[in-house]
Structures are given as structure tokens and as C-alpha cells.
């Protein structure tokens, strides 16, 4: 039986992800006939989204949380990809935003700074799909709605949440292993955000 994905392509993508800080993915050694050159970021996102291997495809989540500066390349990939690839990038971008909202405080402790993948440029993604914003239910509402959206697309009750959360588990484990110290400024910011959220919940 043929493999449902190209393992050499997956191996190349894993090496690219490792070079960008996604160290928890393990792959084979690159074949000798593969030219080791850095892949353009738009092409990397497109190839990840189309690789057919969920663990690697969903590693876009970790890539974007580690590198929020890649936002312009995500926008380009959304605009200049074939329909199915663009939709896959859109879904994993939404999953990133929802997971960031849900795990905001733990990500801040793991990174040693506030997580910074921006919501505003991607508002059209949840609005076009009639999904909640990342601020709704601290991201949980969006995750559940996004899974339902995907289940309706595929016509199957697949568990997408576990795949997305798996990336977050690996990312947190990877980053928390560095035992970064928190600056006083970050501690004060997190305390202020926590108090604001407690006040908002109390007024609802």
C-alpha cells in the first residue's frame, strides 16, 4: 500500500522547521541528492499545509507562535495559494490564534515574554467563516467552533482538537525546558491582565 504522503518531502520540511526552532519534530537524515537550501517562507507555509502529514502540517501552529514576525508571509500564502492549500493555512492560522488565547499565560511564562501572534490582520478569517473571535471564551469557543467547521467540511466526526493541542503540548514542553526567568515588567503586565480579566468576568 502506497504511503499517503511523500516521506522525503516531510523529511525536508522537518529539517526546515528544526532550523526555525521547532525542535521536537524528528525526521530521517536528508538524502544526499537533496539540496540543503532555505525554503522561501511563503513556499514553506504552502508546502507544510499541503504535505498530508498532520503532525508536520499542524506544526505551522508552533512556527507562528515562535515567529509572529512571519505574519506578512502568512498573508501572502493565503492570497497566493491554491484554494485547498489556502484553506488549510487559514484553518491552522485560526487554530494558532485560538490556542494562543487559551494558553496565553502559560505561553508567556514559557517564552519569557508575551505571546505576540497578532489577531487583527486575520479577523477576516473568522468573520468569513462565521466563527468566534479569539477573545471569545479565551479561545475555547473558537477552538470548538473551528473543529465543528472542519468536521462539516470533511463530513466526518474527526478529532481536530487533539491534533492542534498536541502541537501546543510539544511547544510548551520545549520552551519550558529553558526555564526562562520573567522580568519584573512582564510579571506586572501579567498581573494587570489577570486582574482585568477577573474584573471583566465579575461584571458579566
Describe the structure.
With 204 residues, the chain is mainly alpha-helical. It has helices spanning 7-19, 41-49, 54-57, 60-66, 71-79, 83-102, 104-111, 123-128, 140-154, 160-176, 184-203. The longest helix is centred in the middle third of the chain and has 20 residues, at 83-102. The chain is globular and about 60 Å long. 31% of the residues are buried.
Helix proportion of residues, in percent?
55-70%
Main sheet specs:
none
**What's the overall average pLDDT, rounded?**
93
Structural class assignment: mainly alpha
Strand element count: 0
Shape: globular
Task: Summarize the helix and strand pattern as letters.
Answer: HHHHHHHHHHH
Which stretches are poorly predicted, pLDDT < 50 over at least 5 residues?
none
Cα-based radius of gyration, to the nearest Å = 18 Å
Summed up, the helix count is 11
Distance between the termini: 56 Å
Strand content: under 5%
Features:
204 residues; mainly alpha; 11 helices; 63% helix; 0% strand; globular
Quick structural gist:
With 204 residues, the protein is mainly alpha-helical. It has helices at residues 7-19, 41-49, 54-57, 60-66, 71-79, 83-102, 104-111, 123-128, 140-154, 160-176, 184-203.
Amino acid at each position: 500500500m502506497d504511503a499517503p504522503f511523500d516521506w522525503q518531502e516531510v523529511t525536508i520540511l522537518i529539517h526546515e522547521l528544526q532550523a526555525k526552532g521547532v525542535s521536537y519534530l524528528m525526521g530521517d537524515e536528508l538524502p544526499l541528492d537533496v539540496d540543503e537550501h532555505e525554503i522561501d517562507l511563503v513556499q514553506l507555509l504552502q508546502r507544510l499545509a499541503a504535505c498530508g502529514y498532520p503532525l508536520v502540517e499542524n506544526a505551522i501552529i508552533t512556527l507562528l507562535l515562535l515567529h509572529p514576525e512571519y505574519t506578512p508571509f502568512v498573508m501572502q500564502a493565503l492570497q497566493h495559494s491554491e484554494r485547498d492549500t489556502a484553506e488549510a493555512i487559514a484553518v491552522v492560522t485560526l487554530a494558532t490564534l485560538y490556542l494562543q488565547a487559551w494558553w496565553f499565560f502559560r505561553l508567556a511564562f514559557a517564552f519569557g515574554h508575551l505571546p505576540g501572534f497578532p489577531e487583527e490582520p486575520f479577523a477576516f478569517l473568522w468573520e468569513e467563516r462565521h466563527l468566534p473571535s479569539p477573545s471569545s471564551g479565551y479561545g475555547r469557543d473558537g477552538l470548538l467552533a473551528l473543529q465543528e467547521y472542519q468536521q462539516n467540511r470533511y463530513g466526518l466526526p474527526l478529532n481536530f482538537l487533539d491534533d492542534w493541542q498536541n502541537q501546543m503540548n510539544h511547544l510548551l514542553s520545549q520552551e519550558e525546558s529553558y526555564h526562562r526567568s520573567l522580568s519584573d515588567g512582564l510579571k506586572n503586565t501579567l498581573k494587570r491582565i489577570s486582574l482585568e480579566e477577573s474584573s471583566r468576568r465579575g461584571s458579566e
